[in-house]
Design brief:
Blueprint (H helix, E strand, L loop, with lengths): L2 H22 L5 H9 L6 H22 L8 H17 L5 H13 L3 H24 L12 E6 L2 E6 H26 L1 H13 L5 H17 L6 H26 L9 H14 L11 H13 L6 H33 L3 H42 L1
Antiparallel strand pairs: 1-2
Helix pairs in contact: 1-12, 2-13, 3-4, 3-10, 3-13, 4-5, 4-13, 5-6, 5-14, 6-7, 6-9, 6-10, 6-11, 8-9, 9-14, 10-11, 11-12, 12-13
């Protein structure tokens, strides 16, 4: 079994565990799910999907800023490669879309793969900081029901999630966010980054190939961050990021209007978005099925949006399943169509990943060869000394 298949197996197992917890401990039942499906007004699915696709088009405006140092590309030409990346993440393991997107960008715009990879890394970090900021500000726009407490039993361990538990984590989250932000900013300061590189090169336990790989990563990261040093670009990146995520939250609220039993405010939709984004950071199956539904169910229950009962849990699970599917479907269909147009295949993605692993192995082999040659040279010098 190769690494990719192993990752897929682990991801499927994680998704299955969260589905099992939702049904076993959350009180979700198939009968209640089918009843909830029957109450949905599917006309609201169309505006939700339209807002979702528009939010991804808005991502292209931000991506254009990240790419300015490599090439100025109109947002409409970035939409295809962007959607290819997200579609491949939806259907393939090991986040294959992070390779597919820069590959599509290279095929269409001839932007070097390294430049494409670095912009995706910066994009992910900016998204993390945006979501952390929204999460820290949570008390300003959403109220959790203090009377609701959910106990989830996993084996012999019981996990209790309530309003007090969530609020108790906010100070720690704020501190972790500040540390992460400080570390991120330090990489943008040339003298500090040079110190990091000097320390990295002198670490005694890391093999040479790994040091080279980390050094290349740091340099690429710093190159991709150059746009963040321009005040005007930074302001626009922040504006775009807020619009992107709040528009996705609004799409959830729109769908809730067609879902009897789910009374979701805009602030509640933002909290729902944050919880689902946080939980899908756990490695799971392609498309995050199961784990996404569990996170959304917990968020809706904690806000008191649905009844604190088996019926309410089933409504919450079904609503999350519906909005998840309405996101997944148009993104995947359009992304696969764009992949066909640019001739980007899963095989291409595998080849690039294998080339990366091969390069790492070659570097490791060169390191061993150099060490062996050095040992032979030392041995010969010792032999001459003894002869002398």
């Amino acid at each position: 079994m190769n690494r990719k298949h192993f990752q897929l197996l682990i991801g499927l197992l994680v998704s299955a565990i969260f589905i099992w917890i939702a049904f076993k401990a959350g009180g979700v039942t198939f009968g209640e799910i089918m009843a909830a499906f029957g109450k949905v007004n599917w006309l609201f699915a169309f505006p939700m999907m339209a807002i979702t696709m528009a939010s991804f088009y808005w991502r292209c405006y931000r991506w254009r800023i990240f790419l300015e140092d490599a090439k100025d590309i109109p947002p409409r030409r970035l939409y295809g490669p962007l959607m290819i990346g997200f579609a491949f993440n939806n259907i393939l393991p090991a986040r294959a879309g992070e390779v597919a997107r820069p590959l599509a960008l290279y095929k269409q715009e001839k932007v070097p793969l390294g430049a494409g990879f670095s912009t995706i890394l910066i994009e992910r970090l900016v998204d993390v900081f945006t979501l952390l900021a929204l999460l820290i500000a949570m008390p300003l726009y959403v109220t959790l029901d203090p009377n609701i407490s959910r106990a989830f039993e996993v084996g012999d361990t019981t996990y209790i999630i309530n309003e007090e538990w969530i609020r108790g984590k906010l100070p720690l989250l704020s501190l972790a966010s500040l540390i992460l932000l400080a570390g991120f900013i330090s990489f943008l300061i040339d003298p500090i980054r040079r110190v990091y590189l000097v320390v990295l090169r002198r670490l005694p336990l890391l093999p040479v190939w790994l040091k080279e790989k980390l050094e290349g990563f740091i340099q690429s990261f710093a190159t991709g961050c150059q746009c963040l040093k321009r005040p005007k670009a930074l302001v626009w990146i922040v504006i775009h990021s807020v619009i992107i995520w709040l528009s996705i939250a609004f799409s959830f609220q729109v769908m809730s209007w067609g879902f009897p039993g789910v009374d979701l405010t805009f602030g509640g939709a933002v909290f729902f978005l944050l919880v689902t984004c946080l939980i899908i950071s756990i490695p799971s199956s392609p498309g995050y099925w199961g784990i996404y539904e569990f996170g959304g169910m917990v968020a809706l229950l904690m806000m008191g949006v649905v009844a604190n009962s088996e019926s309410g849990a089933s409504d919450a699970f079904t609503f999350t399943l519906v909005v998840h599917a309405l996101q997944w479907l148009p993104i995947t269909v359009y992304g696969l169509w764009a992949a066909g147009r640019l001739s980007v295949t899963a095989h291409d993605v595998d080849e690039i990943s294998e080339e990366s692993e091969l390069e790492k192995g070659n570097n490791h082999g060169r390191e061993e060869t150099e060490a062996a040659d050095e040992g032979q040279t030392t041995g010969r010098q010792a032999g001459r000394s003894e002869e002398g």
